[in-house]
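Encode chain A's predicted structure.
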Amino acid sequence: MINKSLVKTQITEQQPDIRNKNFDEVVLGYTNLEAIEEARRCLQCKHMPCVSGCPVGVPIPEFIHEVAEGKFEEAYRIITRENSLPAICGRVCPQENQCEGKCVRGLKGEPVGIGRLERFVADYHMKNNNEEINKMADENMPKIAVVGSGPAGLTCASELVKKGYRVTIFEALHKTGGVLSYGIPEFRLPKRLVAAEIENVKKLGVEIHTNVLVGRSITVDELIEEDYKAVFIGSGAGLPKFMNIPGENLNGVYSANEFLTRVNLMKAYEENAKTPIKVGNSVAVVGGGNVAMDAARTAKRLGAENVYIVYRRSEEELPARKEEVHHAKEEGIIFNLLNNPTGIAGENGFVKGMECIRMELGEADASGRRRPVKIPDSEFELEVQTVIMAIGQNPNPLIRQTTQGLETQSWGGIIVEESTMATSKENVYAGGDVVTGAATVILAMGAGKKAAAAIHQKLGIQ
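Encoded structure for chain A:
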């Protein structure tokens, strides 16, 4: 008989052979009783190692204690003291590497399902709470500009508006949310939840202007001239990387960024969609991160029979979350590991295959992972009609090209002072993927929160 305290309370999910044909959410969440049962596994450690693993500092044992008592609204109030987007974080944070990775309960058995409980609390609040959110922006307070409405920008804006600042977000796209809207699929993060979280930020008094491309529609310097006392740049990393191998210009080759944007933002999977995507019978996704898993699982839902993850290292080195890899395998995604593309074959301008070579792992490289080495004479061709490149993204160069005095890395990331997120330009701050390159939602949120605190301290408003 299994000791219940050693394993997480089971969570309900759609069956794999059903969910891989629809875009409904895969994980269905806890019931009230299941959440209480899971919360009671928490040891309420005095030194709270889980909190040190949370980039936004949620008081985890405190909110879990309230869940264990059935006080779900109180738990929500505790979480949102530090985290403005709990319904999102509960779904997409890599908890296994952060809070749950430090959970003492995990030393013998499985850690407490902190992410599952955060998600439960946020969902409970959305379903059951009808309290009005009061506007907190004060017309007598300074104006702050935020570039980008992704997780970094939303967090920075909500932290500042709670202190009374007049905050305006400038979003390049026609829809808010950044990577939350265009990057993460519906089956992992329902867009109604993103919209609801953003609506809460707007109710606090944050103004959001869409279709404003900072660097083109207006520059950072012009925002400062318009009496914004500080500017936070959270514009993300939307410039895709390619491998520069033969055939990348063929029809049927996508960056993961374009592929996911067309599906998530433009609903390419709907009948009579204005921007449909034809994936064919077989699809290769190059890469091993969360974005690669999202693209592969999306391609499966679009009707591809065979979807391959092509990654040059072994499963042990896969950077994707274990849960995402597990779900992908359940849904029938085929993992072609220790393989690397060398070219894309075409016919009449369209993809007909991907040329690969087999790899083996050699000595460790600068990342600490064993370096993949080509195996001589091991070339083969994978028959596919679509290739999706999911090997990372860099920031769009527009802001750095139009902002004097803004120091950047050679690859385009904005250089910041780590403790404050201040850039080389006075009163300009930056955080999230525009600084780090493509990373996680919660790290972007942590950066936005850190920048908001630094802006408040710099402006000296009591």
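The radius of gyration is 23 Å.
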